[in-house]
Amino acid sequence: MMTDRGKGLIAINAAVFLFGTAGLFGKLLIFSPLIIVLGRVTFASLALLIYLFIKRERILIEGKRVHYLLLIFCGVILAIHWLTFFHSIQVSTVAIGLLSFSTFPIYVALLEPLIFREKLGLKYLVLALISLLGIRLLVPEFELANQTLQGVLWGSLSGLLFALLTILNRRLVTYYKAEKIALYQNVIAMLFLLPLTFRYLTDINSFGELGMLIVLGIVFTALSHTLFIQGLKNVSARTASIIACLEPVYGIVFAMLVIREIPGIRTLAGGVIIIAAVLYVTISLKNESKLIEE
């Protein structure tokens, strides 16, 4: 029989695959990121609501006031994370957006000890600097008008926000089911985005585009978000981060196959350095966690 940890690892692997390929929608849908993310969280909210209704789960949560505030904060962070992620891809490439976002495990390694009062080793600061070297290779020139630099900056901000969201969800998932957390956060993200998005709604002018938003919302958001949060119940944010290293690999491969977007040598070299640094950080943290448990 599979252990709870084994199920958690499978859930996070599946979520990372969906996260990685979701970046393609930033190129396939020629909309403002506001529309893409609003469609994503709206259909995700509907799917999660229907799922909880079928399962006869109680929708309302009975928790501390601080938990409600934390859910609201996470919902806003989720919305901004996805806005910056898709904007990064649209101004640059799928590869640049995913690789710069993939630095989020570095942020997890730096932030998690501060939030949970755990030890932070000097080597993780060094590895953070190494990952910055990889980011430097992604950028040909430091001019704000350069689209690659814009993509890197927005992607890195998206990674920072996702790291914060991952750490906070680690706390929430000890109190509530993953589906409820995902529902509340997606609904809050939707409410946050609605006032900003009204003037863009007329941009959707075909059933094909609407269908893609529905798929993005149900499969690549409701399902992936729930799987990732569920996995965090039995897997630490640090261990989840090592699996997330595969996200840019999935995204780049599918971008090559679907939209024929081929990354250059400089991008690949920077990507190798970033992923190597992230892998080392997360493997080290994982080993340290095992020693503490023993």
Q: How would you classify the helix and strand content by structural class? A: mainly alpha
Secondary structure: number of strands: 0
Number of domain modules: 1
Order of helices and strands: HHHHHHHHHHHHH
Number of helices: 13
Label the overall shape.
globular
| Mean pLDDT across all amino acids | 82
The share of residues in helices is over 70%
Task: Characterize the biggest β-sheet.
Answer: none
Q: Beta fraction of the residues?
A: under 5%
Report how far the terminal alpha carbons are from each other: 23 Å
- pLDDT < 50 stretches: none
Radius of gyration: 19 Å
Short description:
The protein has 294 residues and is an all-alpha fold. The chain is 78% helix and 0% strand.
Write a concise keyword list for the protein shown above.
single chain, 294 residues, mainly alpha, 13 helices, globular
Kindly describe this structure.
By secondary structure, the protein is an all-alpha fold. The protein has one domain (4-293). The chain contains 13 helices and no strands. The longest helix has 29 residues, at 265-293. The protein is globular, with a radius of gyration of 19 Å.
